[in-house]
């Protein structure tokens, strides 16, 4: 059986670190903790699990810190997590099985990353990341912000899921401001941004409400024609969001349609186009797009997955659209499909009462 080093970078994670390490301590043979300047009890908590704790002076570069952590690993494979991630019990079992059966010919293992959840705890937003890599391959982290692990060779796609559990007290805006500041300092130094930098800088601008500037950088990114296809699709979707905030519906539609140039329409694109028709009362055309959101198979897609756009949301909208064109049976059928996913949702409960009062199935 191959042995595994867990490598983490941390800073002021006293609220979440213990739950993270508890969930993986029995799965890893070595735990490496690299602290980038904690002022709380992070190091004390880490010492409950390992003595391999190292300091790293923060230089506004996440990849530098992660590569330093990887350099301290001594086992066959390296596994990485963030302090606000955990492995649920079911995924711990899957990980243990993966470890027992791992073929040494595997260079990297990708795992699902669930980062948002509905009220019942079901994942609503997820994507894949390479989480376990062969140490001998010496794979490196790339990018000062929104870093990624550059891997190659034999990559295994597993069904193990990492669950993101952010602390209630954590401040996402603070972290996001930090990222934006790092990008802007790099620009002031005259650095040339890679296509990936352009995309993620545009994301930071959008998240801070700087929509016009975000549009400028999304367009710069798309003009390079050198981005990852999933990022190009997301750039178009984010462009549409920026234009919507600015009240430019024509450009919003144009951006959504542009995304189709890169691949089949993503469910989110289809639903948003459906929404635009539905808002205008053009229900038959809206139906086409909502149905497409349900029909496209994206099981092999590596990009972000917001599950609502391929499950309950298009069913909910089809329920409304079919009712407006007099197709009451179909309307009721789609209501029942939406209810399977989110039975306690206020909109779906409203429709449930509506159908009880206004529709009787023969």
Automatic annotation (TrEMBL):
Residue spans of the TPR repeats: 267-300
E.C. code: 2.4.-.-
Domain of life: Bacteria
Signal peptide: none
SMART domains: TPR
GO MF terms, alphabetically ordered: glycosyltransferase activity
Transmembrane segments: none
Presence of keyword Glycosyltransferase: yes
InterPro entries (UniProt xref): Glyco_trans_2-like, Nucleotide-diphossugar_trans, TPR-like_helical_dom_sf, TPR_rpt
Coiled coil regions, renumbered to chain: none
Cross-referenced PROSITE patterns: TPR
Domain Glycosyltransferase 2-like: 5-125
Record keywords, A-Z: Glycosyltransferase, TPR repeat, Transferase
EC class of the enzyme, as a word: transferase
PANTHER family: GLYCOSYLTRANSFERASE, POLY-BETA-1,6-N-ACETYL-D-GLUCOSAMINE SYNTHASE
Entry protein name: Glycosyltransferase
